[in-house]
Design brief:
This protein is mainly alpha-helical and about 230 residues long. It has a domain at about 15-140 and about 190-210. It has seven helices and four strands. It has helices at about 30-35, 40-65, 70-90, 130-135, 135-145, 170-185, 190-210, and strands at about 15-20, 110-115, 150, 165. α2 (about 40-65) runs antiparallel to α3, α5 (about 135-145) runs antiparallel to α7 (about 190-210) and α6 (about 170-185) packs antiparallel against α7.
Length: about 230
Amino acid sequence: MEMEPEKPVVAMNPVRVRGDFDPALSRWMWLVKWLLAIPHYIVLLFLHIAYFVVSVIAFFAILFTGKYPRGLFDFNVGVMRWNWRVSFYALTVLGTDKYPPFHLRPDEDYPADLEVDYPETLHRGLVLIKWWLLAIPHYLIIGALMSGAIGNAMQDDGSQAWDLVVTWPVLYLLLAVALIALLVTAVYPKGLYDFVVGINRWAIRVQAYASLMRDEYPPFRLDQGPREP
């Protein structure tokens, strides 16, 4: 009797980002969603202050014990989850018209969610360098994809005139094309949607790594689409 060859085991990514597309998107609602989300911006301001404080406490906890306190970990994952839902709704994807919930918990009923697996132990030495030194290549890539650059050109012949240099981030160029298509055709192009979610997924993986939540180095990979591959 022949034995069937064993199937390769594919490790699940410890940081999983979901962004399910809403096929019933309004043509025009994206024009006002960023305003409707103002209450979330106010809450997130305070949550991000708490996120920073918790991350500093976790830094010392990991440095001395090799563990990220579970309650602090769950809180920071919740802040990331809340931020992702608001971004998905109003800022960096615009993939749903469903208003985000005001809570930190997982929510299977909302189109956007994320999970970060809790690590039982973390490397005590890596905590000193992974959030700044080791993550620099990712920061450069994410910065190019998600952040515009504004600068001044050199003065010509000592004159006082300065030329303003502005570059648009790739993410918002893609969003602009997608939203024009949505406005004209009532369809958010799937290819653009998948790419935009992939950029956000990459950024969130890097955030989890730089926030000391995991030791696994984020992949240099644009995993596109609503769900993890």
